[in-house]
Amino acid sequence: MQGGLRERLSALESEALEELGRAGTPEALEELRVRWLGRKGRITRELQALGSLEPAERPAVGEAANRIKAALTELLEARRESLLATREERELAAERLDVTLPGRAPRIGLPHPLASALEELTEIFRGLGFEVAGGPEIETPYHNFSALNIPEGHPAREESDTIFVGGGLLLRTHTSPVQIRAMESRPPPLRIIAPGRCYRNDAPDATHSPVFYQIEGLAVEEGITLGHLKWTLEQFARAYLGADLALRFRPGYFPFVEPGAELDVACIFCGGRGCATGKGSGWIEILGSGMVHPAVFEAVGYDPERVSGFAFGTGVERMAMLKHRIPDIRLFYENDVRFLAQLA
Ligand code: DAH
């Protein structure tokens, strides 16, 4: 064999081996195999070119090319296997779970303070024999006002307080329309409370929110007196706010009751000495109430000569604020979990 040819073959071999050393992935190896040993690969072409050599040279060159081919094939295969093994090891390692790691505690949801207050207040009234009734939040002016003896032209009907939604309807401004709906739907006697959302066109501040909750109460049957009202309200206020609570029952005006009364509790912030919360009086109003007005009974077809009743309406946020000493109603609606979790 010519010295030149021998050298070319060994140069080819070392070039192939060097490339092999650099191929770091099974894909690179495959590409290398095609380039060297494929149908148009460099070694293959070397073997195809044998025919153009001197017959005497053919065996030696053929043998050398075949040896390189065999060696390269074997090395390729070995390297491919080891690369695959490393890759699998790496993948397994990435998937490994450390079962000794401490767990991540899931954060558990909590009832909203208003939901808890509504539930607690509802339970108190259930215990006093009241059942829960409901009504729509979108109301007719008739149920929200007229049937409650609030005539047209009354300040409470003005746009500034009421949110109208079109079609002559409005967002109820209090839960009192549920009184009307309950009495329209069945004859006396009845004893209901109606917890629910109300809406007023008020700018939010520490004591006002355009959305808020009330609980309405209504008891109607023969022989109901102001004494029943007073006793019921005392039971309720003491059950929720504390047994030794100082209470004050004083006259108040609402178109749908006669006589009307408001219930005050001694201010929890100043203990009755007088502060901004109680507007200096030391007392905080917690509800409006009274004996159902005959005009209301007439609107629903009840006979005011035969039955009497009492009604009341209280603000749920106001009650919860007093119980938990919460200074600002907006806290209920901002949904800062640091606040919500404290009351849970
Ligand atoms: N509806 C009144 C309000 O929103 C509260 C109220 C006062 C309800 C007297 C009553 C009542 O049932 O008798 O301010």
Q: What does this protein structure show overall?
A:
The structure is a single chain. It contains twelve helices and ten strands. It has 344 residues and is of the alpha+beta class. The chain folds into two domains: 2-94; 113-342, Bira Bifunctional Protein, Domain 2 (BirA Bifunctional Protein, domain 2, 2-Layer Sandwich), CATH 3.30.930. The mean pLDDT is 91. Bound molecules: 3,4-dihydroxyphenylalanine (DAH). 3,4-dihydroxyphenylalanine binds at residues 174, 176, 216, 254, 257, 288-290, 311-313. 3,4-dihydroxyphenylalanine binds next to strand 9 and strand 10.
Residues in helices, as a percent range: 40-55%
Q: Could you name the CATH class of the largest domain?
A: Alpha Beta
Sketch the topology as an H/E string, one letter per element. Answer: HHHHHEEHEEHEEHEEEHEHHH
CATH hierarchy: architecture of the largest domain: 2-Layer Sandwich
Low-pLDDT sequence parts: none
Oligomer: single chain
The CATH H-level homologous superfamily of the largest domain: Bira Bifunctional Protein, Domain 2
The tally of beta strands, per DSSP, is 10
